Amino acid sequence: MSGWIIAGIAIIAGFFTGKISRKPLADIIAWGSAVVWVIAGKLCVSVFSPAVQMLALVFLLFTGMKTVVVVYRSPRASRLNFRRWLCFVLIWPGMNPYAFEPGGVEKMDWKLFGRGAMHFFSGTVLLCLLAGLLQTDLLSLYWLCLLSFPAFILIFHSGIFEMEAACLRKWGIAASPLMDAPQRSLSLGAFWGKRWNIPFIQMTRYTVFKPLLKKTNRHIAF
């Protein structure tokens, strides 16, 4: 129960931290709270299984970093109301708070939804084939586990979350896919810096690269 209380406090505190207009103060509170929630969560769930502890700590760290990117995203206070903040924290893994601000076009993206459904179906078929291979000796367990990663990426990152992004656009939330066709990358820099795991790219851009760019030159920051 105490873990749920910590999670609730972290969500509410994150919303009000984003409303602080004095950015140096907001930065300190955002980073400090991210550390505090993780430590408090660790203490509260230490009696549970390692899997439960991991999930709790991931959620609290995720919530803390959501607060940080909202604070860092611009010099003004957050325009997210509490409902949009909850959506940003609880139902969307992306790290771009701009998408959740008011003013987006309310239109379902059926093309994106269809692409996500196709990816989801492909990943499910691949996972079922790998599950069937468990009963044979054609591939070792190591290779089966390794091949399961593309299946899960197709199911979740390129499947469920693309369909979710398409649905969120119906409510004026300009959510974008978490992957941008990484197979089309022409260089390693394009793969890691533009197309693969976009939430991580967004998070580091707002909290690391842009602040460094203000104090140093482009080569050091990037």
Please identify the structural class as seen in this structure: mainly alpha
Poorly predicted regions = none
Oligomer: single chain
DSSP strand content = under 5%
The count of β-strands is 0
Shape: globular
Indicate the topology.
Layout: H1 2-17, H2 23-44, H3 50-72, H4 82-90, H5 110-133, H6 141-168, H7 188-195, H8 198-215, H9 218-221
Describe the structure.
The structure is a single chain. 68% of the residues lie in helices and 0% in strands. The chain is globular and about 60 Å long.
Properties at a glance:
222 residues; mainly alpha; 9 helices; 68% helix; globular
Short account of what is shown:
It is built from 9 helices and no strands.
